């Protein structure tokens, strides 16, 4: 095979084409880097950043908790380049869906941007979900739900309730120290304490459990009874009046994040007797 000679002119044309293509590739790359860098810079510029979260419509749900949660979702960058808090590309759908999942007390909500720098989170909480049913849990299961009164979102007893069997409403059993004429018009707890307890119950719910009623005895022991499994007794979560509810819920959440612990509790739930949160930095439990 013989080499076919190439004229200098043809060789020069091919060389020029290669140089042109190389220059075009370099120019395109530089242009791409410049545009990406510019967009990255401007996506983080204070003029385009959401810096305020406003929560409204809440009663039991703690507004700072929602604010902190939304701000956490706004932290960081997409692809380590574009700010998640930029008003154009902030993760609206993710914020909306995750708020519904992580705050079970929310019945509905809207997440809307107001101007460039503010997000408005408007919450509608579940209402009419509570009953006050007396001093102590009845010994006979069929009597649970008798002689109950409706309780609003602030812990106020406002009306007599018909008989409700099962877990249609969350129930309270405690001494309210109210009017001897009856519980109507009294508070189960102060609004602040009621909200604290319901945030704790919501936190337990978010861990996959189904609280049914709360029993408080005179010695300050709180028993949060969980949904019945089969014909066994309801398992319960124990804590004390002087426990910091935020701390013990965090302890419980940490324990449930451990695969071994969570698997044992879930797989043997029908034999679970209690989970005890009364002791500092400890989560104790017992099966029947």
| Order of adjacent strands in the largest pleated sheet | 8-7-6-9-10-11-12-13-14
The number of helical segments is 6
Structural class: alpha/beta
Low-confidence stretches: none
* Rg for CA atoms: 30 Å
Number of strands: 14
Biggest sheet character: 9 strands, mixed
The rounded distance between the terminal residues' Cα atoms is 91 Å
Mean pLDDT, to the nearest integer, reads: 85
Give helix and strand order, one letter per element, not per position.
Answer: HEHEEHEEEEEEHEEEHHEE
Structure write-up:
It contains 6 helices and 14 strands. It has helices spanning 8-43, 63-74, 92-102, 191-206, 245-256, 259-267, and strands at residues 52-56, 77-78, 82-83, 106-114, 118-125, 130-132, 149-151, 157-160, 170-173, 211-216, 221-226, 236-240, 272-276, 284-287. Helix 4 (191-206) runs parallel beside helix 5. The strands form 3 sheets. A 9-stranded mixed β-sheet has the order 8-7-6-9-10-11-12-13-14, with helices on one face. Strands 1-5-4 form a 3-stranded mixed β-sheet, with helices on one face. Strands 2-3 form a two-stranded antiparallel sheet. It has 288 residues and is α/β, with parallel strands linked by helices. Strand 13 and strand 14 (284-287) form a beta hairpin. The model has no long low-confidence stretch (mean pLDDT 85). The termini are far apart. The protein is elongated, with a radius of gyration of 30 Å. It is 33% helix and 23% strand.
